[in-house]
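Continuing the series of single-chain predictions for the mutant panel. This is the parent chain; the variants come on the following pages.
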Amino acid sequence: MCGIVGLWNAFDSPDYYTPTIQKMAGEVNHRGPEAKGFAQGENWALGHTRLAIIDLENGAQPLWNSDGTRVIIGNNEIYNAPELRQILQSLGSRFQTGSDTEVILKGWEMWGYEVFSKLNGMFAVAIVDIPKRTCVLARDPMGIKPLHYSRFGKGYAFCSEIKSLLKIPGWSTEPNRDAAHLFMNFRYVPNEETLFSGVYRLPPGAVATLDGHSLRVERYFELTPKTTSRDNGEEAVEKLGFLLENAVKRHLISDVEVASYLSGGIDSSLVTALASRFSPGIRTFCMGFGEDSDENKDAALVANSLSTLHKDLFVGTTPLDRFAETIWFVEEPKINCLQGYLLAEAVSKEVKVALSGLGGDELFVGYVNNDILLPMTVASRFLPAGLSRNLGAIQKHFPTLGNQHYFRALELGMNLNDPLSYYAILRNCFDHSPFLLQEIYASPQKHWHNYSIESLRPYFDATDPDVLNALLRLEARTKLVNDFLLTEDRVSMAHSLEVRTPLLDKTLVEYAFSLPSSVKYKFRQKKRLLKRAGQSYLPDEILNKKKWGFSFTPHLFFEKQLRDFARQTLTKAAVKDLGWFSWPWIERVLNSKPSPKLRWHYFNLWVMAGFHIWHDHFFNSKRSERA
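Parent structure:
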């Protein structure tokens, strides 16, 4: 993959563009360490860092058209590029390279904005169209690849990673406390805002047109708002099997070796099984954490059955020693980034491309939470509205340590009539409770009450009678893109490793969301459709195993390293100096006896420590100079 940076109408003098765009590109050199390229006009500049995967010799960027009127930079893999190339050639287009990026450029010249809806792949691209005096930014339908933008001067700057903006002379930002509050609730920011004020993410499936001094964002792709497929169980299994096979085959297109992550779970195992049909002896990698929940044995079972070239990797006993450097690359204090960062580091030493099973849970209903969501989707049809979800008046009379899960269960019961509130509480939101706001923060803002639940409302279709499908679409538009895909991109590209997600192939996404949830899922039968489609590829032990995934056990991790790490990071002086979080709450958790009941507390403690590191990285003047 690659890193892209750009400036549009940012400076009054063209002399500022060249040195600035070069420094911006330097900040994403890890995304493409093999080559750099630049292009500039009177009021714009583009920069590109390349990780060569397709057309190794002729795929350099920026890529100009034959008459020098249009130029493109892209962070992309377009899996249907061969088919689109043939169509464009039949319509008269002539190609200079074998790269998929040129397919996008020629498609833009032939079809305009319609080209983006024709692409099947992951991409974040910028096209400067000189005759039209516009710059067009576009992002793939699921948001697999990142693209940020920020106002600067009379124009805009855009980039793969926010740290590039730090190199623009005169550009400034401050922590976005509202986004940070959302992050504390969800452990990611669900909307298009970021933790940096004035920096936004282009939404998945969207195009931004920079025209003069303005920016206009429009959607070219939306997840199907209502179920349209009438396939029954058997028809769905057959069609899904066909789509899976073709999706994985497409994702193997490469001029370099492609490996596969193999956790031992259904998703990565199915991707690996299908990949091994087209690439026998494919290399596979599994990571363990030295805990009983490790899936290395399951991964080995799959690897042996498929005759892959398998390798086990293990996290050290003190993974938080690498947390600070991981935050620098991820640009958020994510607690699910360490394992992926360490895995990508090891895998990148052997290959440049790896397949991932990411997306199977979101498309085919794989999370344990769905067993809790299902009763609500039924009850919400019959219960009256207006039940209270605030237990703060009761909660304040009980110690918070060890009791939070009881209150969470009560809140869920009280919100059976409200799918969105029920979902938000299930996903760890706490700002519906004034008591918890006071517990967590040093100075909570009044408008934060219910702020998290309201942030989800634009992504939830309350008119859809299939409530579970509506919530699955919500997750695909929020958690999948801004949590899992964001993390996957940053931790892999930090090590110049391209990770591909076959289960998020456009054809699979569209089909999965065209099906009613009842076809994909039954109570306590998660991913039933996907498992049925995978029966001919995988051992029964894998198809029927309990879900876990790459993860730590919270109370064991607290005992092993988190408590000591938090004590070093969240000192009383440091907490009071930043002024965001409540020291008495932190102190109580630090002095508590390790317990599985404190899972929520440990995660919050971890995020708080991460925010202190994040703030030091990006807002401490001495540290930010490293950028």
